[in-house]
Each structure stands twice: as C-alpha cells, then as structure tokens.
C-alpha cells in the first residue's frame, strides 16, 4: 500500500516537472530533484538515520556528497510549497474515492491554519560554532484539512523571527468560496480577514487583544451553551468591512491555564451557522497541533543535523508529503474494516509508520522495481479500489490507536535547587514503598 500510494503521490517525473516550473536560480544537471526527494523520504520514514547514510546506500549516486548537500541547501521555498499543494491535489481524489470521512461542518471545506517553528539545530555550519544561543533554522505556515487529514498548503519561511502574520498573506491565493478558515489570535489581522472575505471564504479567528480595532458593535445576545461554557453573540464592524461580522463570546465554566475566563471569536459565517456551532468548530483547531506532534513522533520531520534553513525546511516539507500518504493509508484501513452502523476503527499513523519501517526495505530487496505495477498515472478510483483490497488483509488491532487515561492534575511544590538535582535509586524507593503501611 505504501509503495503504490507513494508512487501515485510523488512520481519522479511529476516532481522534476514541478521543479522546472517553480525554480528560480536552481537547475538540474546530473542530479535530479526527484532523487533528492527520494533520499529525504528515506530519512523521514526512518529507513535511514540521516541524509548522508541514505546517499551512501544509494547505488550510482551521480554526484558527490558535497554536491548533494549543496543542492539541498539551495532548495527554494517556492518549490516546497508547490510540492505540498500538488501532492494534496493528487491524493484528494483518491481519498474521496476511498470513502468520505465525518465532516466538521457539512457544506463547507474546513481549513485550519497554524505556524510551526523548527527546533534548534546542531551548529555544524561554521558561522554558528561560536554562537552560544540556540540556532533556529526556520518556520512554516501549514494549512490542514481535518476532514481528509491532508496538509493542503504550506509556506516555508527561512527566517525564524519573521512575522507569521506577514507570511500568511501568501496563503490567501488558496482561499475560495465554500471554505471556512480556522486560526488562532496571531492571524486576527485586518489584511487576512478582508482577504478571506474578498475570496468569499468563511473564517473563525480568535480575537486579538489589540487589533483590528472595532468602529461599531451591537449588544450581546445570549445563544445557549456548549460543553465548556455559556455562548453569546454580537454584531461587529471594522474599517473597510463590506458586511457586518459576528463576535462570539464563550464564557468558560473553568478558566484556561492562562487564567482567561472568556474566549472571543470573530466570524463571517452566515446566521444559519449557530454561535455554539462556531465555538465548537474552533475547538477543532487543536487537531493541527496533534498533526504537528505526529509529524515529530511518527516521522523524522525535525532533523537536527540539517542546520541550513533551506535544508531543514526541505526535510520538514518531505515529512509533510509522507504524512499525507500515511493519512491516505489510515483512511483505507478505517474504511475497509468499518462494520455496518458502527463508527470506523481509529488507526494510528504511528503504528502504520512502524509497519512500513519494519518491512519496506526488505520488500524492495526481495521484489525488484520492474516487478511492481505502475501506479503514478492510475485513475484515482482504480488506486482506491486496490488500496481497499489490500487494507482488508490488515489486522486493524495491530494499527489501532491506543487511548490513554487523562493524566491526573498534580501541582508540584517549590523545592530548592539541591533537592531538584538530587537523585535516588528506583529499586530502593520501590522496596521502601512495599513495607509502608
């Protein structure tokens, strides 16, 4: 399944064509960009520990390792965005043919926007070796579709200190009618809100404390309750706004960790979408946080050895491409084993990745490439039928999500530094606990 889905999502000819269309200063001679993506995919899937190890194992690498790293370090951000958008467009028809998932808001296509900062990298670059602070290789703005589980768009930013609000403007060209964008307070700017409004797209954005400034607002109207608090609504207006917007206030029963008792949301959705429904939709924003966590734990998306910003962003983008493939495989397993009148089993992308790591390399050794049927140009319906056929042979319990009980909230009292740095023998502590009454 992984082989067929990867070949359809990332065919070598298509990758090289995307590179030629969106490249600016880069060019391809002996080393094709599809070869670079193949090597990076092996690292992201955990089949090779590093790009250096993947390149050494590749038979017939046409260039030296120095030339490979030089090409990786000069990968242009526009190419990364085109790859992410294109792979999502190639997989979306297959995902639809496999079977529809539970939609967050019927009649709307939900898009969740959030930023992700790559962690500090190793200081292998000469200018970084004398710097004592952390070296951040960059950040990315990601658009996630919670209904399909696919990452549909990504903007790579080389400067880790660039404003997320400025970088998000590039994503407005992907907004359109029938979409509803959900974002945190960092993206509550007049430029973004007016951009979504001009594109005839809906939005649900948490209110920022300072901007945009309101020029007019109506009286609060009570609108029921949700699981977490009481909901109310009012009409608001900002400068240059073509039509009135809505502000939804959620008065929480329990304050947040930051001590906030009220969450305010801005939205331009029609009145048919109730305020309580909008508040519940904003709670779905945490799904993109879970997606970032799965990228880090399931795939090697944060490579500390890649200190150059463009190289680190290439590794993150390829991990996003691999994650989209895993999302498709998970949907196939869920649909193949769904019993009538029952919800589908929840598949863990982590266990799926473990199965791929355990057998993928040996499968490629045992079965030569010429023995595999081509799937890069197959119709989405035919590929979906084949993936569902293979998914029926999988034991769903082996890839099911393991749910943990919620952790009990405990507060740790203050202790001095000497006590915090002290250590104990676990065996002695357990032996002492057994003799306690």
Give an overview in words.
It contains 15 helices and 10 strands. Strands 1, 2, 3, 4, 5, 6, 7, 8, 9 and 10 form a 10-stranded mixed β-sheet that branches. The N and C termini lie far apart (56 Å). The longest helix is centred in the C-terminal third of the chain and has 28 residues, at 309-336. It has 437 residues and is of the alpha+beta class.
Give me the number of helical elements. 15
Shape: globular
Mean pLDDT: 88
Instruction: Tally the beta strands.
Output: 10
How large is the radius of gyration? 24 Å
Largest beta-sheet characterization: 10 strands, mixed
- Output the helix-strand order: HHHHHHEEEHEHEEEEEEHHHHHHH
Helix and strand composition category: alpha+beta
Distance between the termini: 56 Å
State the helical fraction. 40-55%
What oligomeric state do the depicted chains represent?
Answer: single chain
Spans of at least 5 consecutive residues whose pLDDT stays below 50 are none
Q: Please indicate the percent range of residues in DSSP E strands (runs of 2 or more).
A: 15-25%
List keywords for this structure.
437 residues; globular; 10-stranded mixed β-sheet; alpha+beta
Give a brief description.
The protein is α+β, with helices and mostly antiparallel strands and 437 residues long.
Chain-wise SSE layout:
Blueprint: H1 2-9, H2 12-22, H3 33-44, H4 51-57, H5 65-73, H6 77-98, E1 109-117, E2 139-145, E3 150-157, H7 164-167, E4 179-183, H8 190-198, E5 202-206, E6 214-217, E7 221-225, E8 229-238, E9 245-252, E10 262-267, H9 275-283, H10 286-298, H11 309-336, H12 349-366, H13 380-391, H14 417-421, H15 426-434
Parallel strand pairs: 1-4, 4-5
Antiparallel strand pairs: 1-2, 2-3, 5-10, 6-8, 7-8, 8-9, 9-10
